[in-house]
Amino acid sequence: MVNKKSSDSGKPADDKKSGNEKKRSALTIILLILLLIIILLLLFYIGGKLLGKGSGSSQNGFGVDTLQIGVDTPAVDAATLIDTAFVDTAKKIALPAHTKRAAPVGVDTALAGVDTASVDTSSAGVASADTSATDTALVDTALVDAAALVVDSALLRAAACARDTVVPWVYADPSGGLHRQAVSVKLVANKVCKVEWSYDGVKGWKVYDGKAISVSTPTTIYYKAVDSCGKKMDVRSKRYEFDMAGARCPSGMELVKSGGREFCVDVYQWPNKKGVVPQAFVSLYQAMDSCFSVRKRLCTSEEWTSACAGPEKWKYTYGENYEWNTCATRDTTAQRSGSKPECRGFYGVFDMSGNLAEWTSTSAPQDRSFNNVMGGFWASGNQSRCADARYSYYPQNKHNPVGFRCCADASPEARPKGSR
């Protein structure tokens, strides 16, 4: 009895003690939860500061624009997101410091279940690398890129220059010689290059700007050229002279003075029209009849040579030295009359070196049954001199590379009033 009473009297005390322990446990749990919440809040605050350091934009540490949150895109696991952030951060090294980047398409931090505030600081440290180290890396990368660009440009330039075998060539249009009125001269190049010109060829060189050079008095124009690869055209020159006297020749003809004689010669090969391919494949007799039909005559060999060589008696119609690209002497067929501006003689007659060889009325001294055919044709090369004469063409036959031009006597020179 006594023992039972004692046992019953101790039970309420044990229950009370157990209740107090439960309360303390509950309070402890509550305090721990509160502490955890506070720690999470602190981590959120600190993590936001670290991830947002150095960026004045709305981007997080992984370069993902927070404005993209909520876009309906497939979920990405945390590991993938961290890898993407690392790659994106590495790409930033090649860009200027603090450069904003657009968010990677398809990355949704909300769906990925990764809170940017709770990302491990080691990952955040990748995005917030030391600024000075990053700047140094940027400078080094920029220098390496610049050096590589210079080397690549030099190699490309060298390769382009190796392929470019065309030497600059510049000609004056209209060309030099005798003119009947003032001219406006343009310098024309066969490729992109730097062209310079001068009046004396020694000093006062000017870069040609494409504008015509006005010439109205006896003048010599010197010009030269160089391209971007260093290929040069040596100094060339054209002399311009003027005779403003009244015309003494029919239209389409120029006056030639030679050895005390004066005569007129067609400016172009028959049919004597600029821009038209001259007529070839004609016999000597057809050429004579054609000239007679327009009250002219076929030129003699002497007249033809005088008109071609000019008063300086040049070897070629344009000068002493052969120039392959001045006249049509390295082509596959006859060219349009006047299409080669530099293939102009002193007297203003065109295409007397090359294009078509020309019949004359002079019999060949080697065989009187043949007539001299003067000059060269479209493929005769340097065998297109003013004195080159061929006589192996049968006069009654038509020949593919042979044409002609006409001559006429000049009108008497007008005498001043009161003279006898």
Task: Please write out the topology.
Blueprint: H1 2-52, H2 78-92, H3 109-112, H4 121-127, H5 131-163, E1 170-173, E2 177-179, E3 183-189, E4 194-198, E5 206-207, E6 213-215, E7 219-226, E8 232-242, E9 253-258, E10 261-266, H6 284-293, E11 297-298, H7 301-309, E12 357-364, E13 367-374, E14 389-390, E15 402-403, E16 406-409
Parallel strand pairs: 2-8, 12-15
Antiparallel strand pairs: 1-3, 3-6, 4-5, 4-7, 7-8, 9-10, 10-16, 11-16, 12-13, 13-14
Annotation keywords:
Immunoglobulin-like, 5-stranded mixed beta sheet, 420 residues, 4-stranded antiparallel beta sheet, paralog of FGE (formylglycine-generating enzyme), single chain, alpha+beta, 3 domains, 19% strand
* Beta-strand residue percentage: 15-25%
User: What Rg, in angstroms, do the CA atoms define?
Assistant: 48 Å
Which structural class matches the secondary elements? alpha+beta
Query: What is the CATH third-level topology name of the largest domain?
Result: paralog of FGE (formylglycine-generating enzyme)
- Estimated helix fraction: 25-40%
Q: Tell me about the largest β-sheet.
A: 5 strands, mixed
Q: Report low-confidence residues grouped into runs of 5 or more.
A: 1-12, 51-129
Mean pLDDT: 79
Number of strands: 16
Number of helices: 7
In the CATH hierarchy, the architecture of the largest domain is: Alpha-Beta Complex
Number of domains: 3
Helix and strand pattern: HHHHHEEEEEEEEEEHEHEEEEE
- Per CATH, the superfamily of the largest domain is paralog of FGE (formylglycine-generating enzyme)
- Please give the CATH class of the largest domain: Alpha Beta
- General shape: rod-shaped
End-to-end separation in angstroms reads 185 Å
